[in-house]
Amino acid sequence: MVPGNADQLVLVDVLGAQRPINLGMLEDQRVSPGDWLLIHMGFAIERIDARGAEKAMSGLEMMGRPADAPQDEWVPRA
To answer: Which residue segments constitute the domains of the chain, with CATH numbers given?
Structure first.
């Protein structure tokens, strides 16, 4: 938890970077290390599992892929 903010802010790892995320939109705001969260604009909007996180990342990578890039050769930039 990040001090203040009504205990609704936590630091999460987003691709290796620590980011403050607001839990206020989650029905159950209790999170533990290792939990997966779907986040948008600094808010946790849904608790997901590792498979759901993998699908979400795959979709985001696909949206950023150039139209003419072969799927198996394109690597997203960090």
So the answer is: 5-64 (2.30.30.140)
